[in-house]
Amino acid sequence: NRLHATDVTSSSFRLVWPQLLSQDSGFYSLEYGPGGDPAARSTLQVPGAQSSLVLSQLAPGTTYEVALIPESNVHYFPPQRTRVTTLPEEISPVQVLISDSGPRSFQVSWAPVLDSVASYQVLYGPLPGNSAKLLQVDGSHNSTLVQHLAPNTTYLVTVTAIYRSGKEKSLSAKACTLEGERGQ
């Protein structure tokens, strides 16, 4: 029963270790940082009664070296070490779908919806052409209705995820409106 990690995500993991100390017999020093970069290490003090801790705000797709050092005035416990690799960063959108096409509107939806995305921008315009329009969509939504379009026209639709970190990721799809009814 040793120091190990559970609940690993792209930015956090939970450390779990055997109960070696009590509230009265000492505390733990926890050192962690990306492997191979001693300057980037952080140290935390953890009360002796604790046997788990969540580390968050970590870099995605990174191997962290973790050392748990029991600081006891009663017994000597050797440090426990482990390595944990965070998951690669999830990206959005990886899929853009067009549905409910009519002569003057269509629905745009995308996936996945991630907590790390602050907002989405939906840019659409007829092909060929450069008269694109922009819709802003809240980061918790995964679809929007595009309206006031021309019938029987092909549109290029680009969905851009604006991450809280400032990064952006875009994905495009083509959409065709239906022919309008004659005589209108």
Automatic annotation (TrEMBL):
Its main location: secreted. SMART domains: FN3. Residues 1-90, 92-180 form the Fibronectin type-III domain. Coiled coil: none annotated. PROSITE patterns: FN3. One of its GO terms (cellular component) is extracellular region. This is VWA1 protein. The gene is Vwa1.
